[in-house]
Amino acid sequence: MSQFRALAGVLKGGCAGGSQLLRGCGRGPARRWVDPKRGCSSSSSSRTEPLLPAVASSSSYVEEMYFAWLEDHKNVHESWDGFFRNIQASSPSGEAGETRPSTLLQGRVLSHSLDMAQKVVEDHLAVHTLIRAYQIRGHHVAQLDPLGILEADLDSFVPSDLITTIDKLGFYGLDESDLDRSFQLPSTTFIGGQDTTLPLREIIRRLETSYCGHIGVEFMFINNVDQCQWIRQKFESPGIMQFTNAEKRTLLARLIRSTRFEDFLARKWSSEKRFGLEGCEVLIPALKTIIDKSSAAGIDSVIMGMPHRGRLNVLANVIRKDLDQIFCQFDPKLEAADEGSGDVKYHLGMYHERINRETDKDITLSLMANPSHLEAVDPVVQGKAKAEQFYRGDTQGKKVMSILMHGDAAFAGQGVVYETFHLSELPSYTTHGTIHVVVNNQIGFTTDPRVARSSPYPTDVARVVNAPIFHVNADDPEAVMYVCRVAAEWRSTFNKDVVIDLVSYRRFGHNEMDEPMFTQPLMYKQIRRQEHVLKKYSDKLIAEGVVTLQEFEEEVAKYDKICEEAYTSSKDEKISHIRHWLDSPWPDFFTAEGEPRSMSCLPTGLGEDVLQHIGQTASSVPLQDFKIHPGVSRILRGRADLVKNRQMDWALGEYMAFGSLLKDGIHVRLSGQDVERGTFSHRHHVLHDQEVDKRVCVPMNHLWENQAPYTVCNSSLSEYGVLGFELGFAMSNPNALILWEAQFGDFHNTAQCIIDQFISSGQAKWVRNNGIVLLLPHGMEGMGPEHSSARPERFLQMSKDDPDHFPEFSGDFEVQQLYDCNWIVVNCSTPANYCHVLRRQILLPFRKPLIIFTPKSLLRHPDARSSFDDLAKGTKFKRLIPDEGHASQSPGQVKRVIFCTGKVYYELAKGRKQKNLERNVAIIRLEQISPFPFDLVREEADKYANAELVWCQEEHKNMGYYDYVRPRFLTVVANKKPIWYVGRDPAAAPATGNKSTHLNELKRFMDTAFNLSAFQERDL
User: Transketolase-like pyrimidine-binding domain location, by residue (predicted)?
Assistant: First the structure.
C-alpha cells in the first residue's frame, strides 16, 4: 500500500511511465476516471490529461482495468497491455476467459503494479537528486575562465553526479531511453517556468543553461529556504536574463568609456605605473549597474573601497572625478601639496555628489583612500558606512550602503577579510549588507593561485556568513550585468552580504612595467591572442542590429575627444592642494579653504552641578525593579561615596567626560573587547538584570533630556578589523567622540597596519582629519610580556615633531603645537586629567588621533584620585604636572629633578617619602608626551637650574619613552647638561613573567633614582 501511496504522490502532475497507466477503464462508451487533483470521479468519453486510478492496489481496480483491457487493449497503458498479454498467454486454458480474474491473476497484477510504482518513485527521486546536484555543484563546471585555460575552482574534475555525457545517466539508475520521459518537477526548482513536468533531456539542458554557462552560483550552503528559493528563481526561471536594446546600448557605452580610458592613459603615459583595468574592463559597467539598481531601491549614499588596480578608472567613470584632475597627477613637475605629502595617484580617494542619470535621483559616492595594504580599507569602509547610517537614522541600511572591491589573491590571503565579514551581522557593526566585487585576475603578483590558496575559490571565506557567491565570466558583459542586478536586489531584499566573482585576467603584468612572461608564459601567450571584450561585445550588438558600426565608432570618438580636451586642460591646471582628493569632507567644521575656524581651545572644566548629576547617575540604577549583581552594587556604593566626598577615581573621571559631552550633543561611541564591563571590571557601563535574561540598563543614556546617544559595544575578538571599523566611523562626523579600547595595550600590535597606514599618516597622505581615540592599558606589573606594554616607543617613533628644534609660536603654544602634529600621545596619571584630555579632544578646532596609555593598577589605587576641584570651571588638561610639594617651595635646595610619566610616578612618590627626600628630589610628570611640551619642560628646568635631570621609566631602556624624550630634553637645556636614564636595562621582551624578577627590577631602579651620588660618580 505504501508504494502505491508514494506513486500517487509522485504522479499527480503526470508522467509517461506512470500517470498514463490507465488510458480508460469501465464499460461502455462512458469511461469512469478518477481525477487526482479533485479526488472525485468524473465521466468523460475522452481526456486531455493523464489521470490516476483511485486506489492502485485494490482488487476491484485490477479487475476493472483488466475488463477494460479485454474490451479494448488501448484502454490501458502499453506496459499493462503487455503484462495482460503475457498473463493470458501463460494461463491454463480457459482461466483467462473467466467472468472474474483468477486469484493468481490478481496476485501477478498487484506484484507488477508494485514493481512499477517503485520504479516510478525511484526515477523521480533520481531526477530530483540530479536537479539538486546541479544547484549545489553546477558552478564547478561553469565556463568561467575567459581564457579557457584554467578552472576557477583550480580543479578540472567534473563531479560524478553532474550529467555532462549520456553514459553518466547510469549514476542515477537512468539510461538514454529515459531522456524523453517526462518527470514531475520538485517545488525547489523554477526551471519549468509554468510547466510542472519536463522531459529529462530538457531538464538537463535547462539546468546546464542555469548553472553551467558563464555564471556559476554558490548558494546551497545557505541555511534559509526562502533565500535559496529566491536565488533559484533568479537563475533558473526560463528567459529571465533578458536585456532591452536600450540597456545593451548603455552597457556598450560604459564599456567604451572603461576601455578607452585605459587606452588613453597607455598612449599618453606609456612608462608610468597606473595599475590599469585591462582584462577586466567590465568592472566599470558592473559597478554602475549595482549603483543604478541600488539607487532605484532608495540608496542615496554609497561608500566604496578598493585596491589600486582599476582605481583611476573607477574615479573617472564611476565617481566621475574630473579627468583633468586625474591627468594632472601624471605631471612629473607637479608641485608638492601645501598640506601633507600626498600619495600616489592610485591610492587616493574621492567624494562626489551627483545625479544618477538612470534614476534621476541624487546620489553621493565616496571612494576611500587606501594604501597598498590591499584589504586594510575593508573595515574602514564598513565603519564609515555604519556611521552614516547611524547619524541618518537609517536603521535598516535602506539609504546608505557599502561596496568593497577586492583582488582574488588578497581576498583569499588576507585575514582582515574574514574579520570584516565576521562583523557583518553583529548588531553594533552591521551595515545591513555589503556588495563585494572580486576582480579575479586568476593570479597574484606573480604567484599562481594553486600555490596561493588552499580553498577552491578565492571567495570561499564569504561562506562563513552564508553570503551567496556569483562567479561570472568577465568576458560576457550581459552575464556580468545580470549578476550585478541580482546582487543589488539581494542586498536590498535581505540586507546581507553578497559576493560577485568577476573571473577575468590581467592583460599586462602586476603593473605596466612588469614582465609577466617570466612566470606565467602559458597564460600570457593566450592573453596576447585574446580578443578584447569591447571588440567582442560591439561585434555582437552590431550583428544583432542593436547598434550600427557607425554609431559604435562615433561613441568611441566622442569619449576620446573628452579625454583629449581634459588632457589639454590639465596642462594649465595647478594642483597645489591635495584637498581635491578628500574622501570624507567636513564642510561645516572647517572653513571653505579647509582651515580650522579658530586656533584656540576652550577650558575643559565643568560646573559643580554637572559633576554631581553625572556622579549620582553613575552610582545608581535608573530603571525600576532592576536586579543587579551584589558585586556591582558594591561598586556603585563606592562611587556614591566618592561623589559624596567630591572625589573621583578613573572610572568616574571617564563618566564625567562622556556624560558632559553627551549633554552638549556629542555622540560618544566606545568599542572593543569587553568594554561594556571593562577588562578590569572597573567600568560597568552596561548593567545586566540578574533575573531577566537580556534585560540591560545603560545609565549613561539616562543622564539628560535630549542628550546625544551613548554607544558602548563589546566587539568580536578582533583588533585589526574592529580598529579599522572605528576609524571609519570616526571619519564620518567630527562632532563625535569615537574610542577603541584594547583588551590589553599589547594587543594593538595585531592592528598595527591600521595604525601605521591610516592613523599615523592619514592626514599627511590624504588630508584625512580623524579624532579617533585609542585606549591602551599599559603598565609593568609583573603580568608578563604580553600583558604589560602598549609599546609607547612605536607611537613616539612615528610622531613627527622635530627633536632638535624648539618650536616658537606667536599664539596659543599648546593649540598650535597640536595643530602641527600627526597625533597626540598621552599617559595620564590622574582621573581629572583623563577627563580633561577627552573633553579637549572635542573642543579642539581640528581633529587629531589621540593615543592614551591607560592604567591598570591605578584604576583602584587610593592615591590615583582627583577632587571635583580639579575639574572645576576654568580648569583644563595639564600637559605637565609639576611638583607641588616641599621641593617646589625651595627649588634651590633640589639636587635632582626626576621627570616621568604614568604609573611610575606613584612608585617614585612613595619611594621619595620613605627615604625622606621631599626637599631634595622633585618629581615632575609628563602627561602629554607627544607633541613634547617644550615650553613647560623649559620652565621646570629653569626653575631647578642647579639640579641634575633624570628621566625615570618602568619600561626597558630600549623601549618606552627614553629614546624619544632624551634629545628633546637636550634641546630644552641647549645641551648644557645631560639627562640621565633610570629604569630597566635593555631587553628583548617588554616585561618579565616572573613576579620575583619584576619586583627585583623595580627595587633596583628605585634605589638608583634616589641615590643622589650615583650620577656624579658616573660622570667622574
Answer: 648-861
Strand pairing report for 301-305 and 361-367? parallel
For the four alpha carbons of 152, 293, 417 and 275, in that order, the dihedral sign comes to positive
Tell me the C-alpha distance between 125 and 3, whole Å: 14
CA 824 remoteness from chain centre: 28
Amino acid 29: pLDDT = 36
Q: Contact at 8 Å (CB) between 961 and 951?
A: yes
Q: Among residues 475, 518, 513, 483, which one has the least CA distance to residue 499? A: 483
Domains in the chain, CATH or no CATH each:
2-119 (no CATH), 134-227 (no CATH), 245-569 (3.40.50.970), 608-778+827-871 (3.40.50.12470), 883-1019 (3.40.50.11610)
Neighbours of 91 (CB within 10 A): 17
Q: How far apart are CA 485 and CA 465, in angstroms?
A: 21
Distance between CA atoms of residues 641 and 647, nearest Å = 8
Instruction: Quote the radius of gyration of the chain (alpha carbons, Å).
Output: 38
Mean pLDDT on 944-960:
95
| Non-local CB neighbours of 508 within 8 Å, separated by 6+ positions | 276, 278, 514, 516
| Element (DSSP H or E) covering residue 210 | helix 200-211
DSSP string, 311-323: HHHHHHHTS---H
DSSP state of 715: P
C-alpha cell at 324: 583633468
* 220 class by beta-carbon count within 10 Å (0-12 exposed, 13-18 middle, 19+ buried): middle
Q: Which long-range contacts (CB under 8 A, 24 or more apart) does 536-545 make?
A: 536/475, 537/251, 537/252, 537/255, 537/477, 538/252, 541/248, 541/249, 541/252, 544/248
For residue 62, list its beta bridge partners.
Answer: none
Return the HEC string of 569-630. Answer: HHHHCCCCCHHHHCCCCCCCCECCCCCECCCCCCCCCCCHHHHHHHHHHHCCCCCCCCCCCH
Q: Where are the alpha helices (DSSP H) in 944-993?
A: 962-972
**Cα separation, 6 vs 177, whole angstroms:** 23
Specify the pTM: 0.88
Work out whether strand 824-826 and strand 736-741 pair parallel, antiparallel, or are unpaired. unpaired
**pLDDT of amino acid 463:** 96
Q: Show the beta-strand stretches assigned E in 270-349.
A: 301-305
696-732 pLDDT, tens digit per residue, is 999 999 999 999 999 999 999 999 999 999 999 999 9
Average pLDDT over residues 142-159: 90
Please give the grid coordinates belonging to residue 76.
Answer: 490501458
pLDDT digits (tens, 9 = 90+) for 881-902: 999 999 999 999 999 999 999 9
Residue 7 contacts by C-beta under 8 Å, 6 or more apart in sequence?
18, 56, 116, 117, 120, 121
- Which of left, alpha, beta for 337 (phi over 0: left; psi -120 to 50: alpha)? beta
Cα–Cα dist 617/628, whole Å: 15
Query: 601-622 in b/e burial notation, b at 16+ Cβ within 10 A?
Result: beebbbeeebbebbbebbbebe
Buried-state track 730-759, b at ≥16 Cβ within 10 A, e below 16: bbbbbbbbbbbbbbbbbbbbbbebbbebbb
**DSSP E strand stretches across 200-297:** 215-218
Helices (H), 844-932: 886-889, 904-914
pLDDT in tens, 444-466: 888 888 888 999 999 999 999 99
- Please tell me what DSSP assigns to residue 428: T
Q: Which residues fall within 8 angstroms of residue 763, CB to CB, at 6 or more apart?
A: 340, 769, 770, 822, 848
For 885, the grid coordinates are: 610639594
Residue type, 336: A
CA-wise closest residue to 660 among 859, 836, 879, 826: 836
In this structure, what DSSP letter does residue 506 have? -
- CA-CA distance, 883 to 427, in Å (whole number)? 48
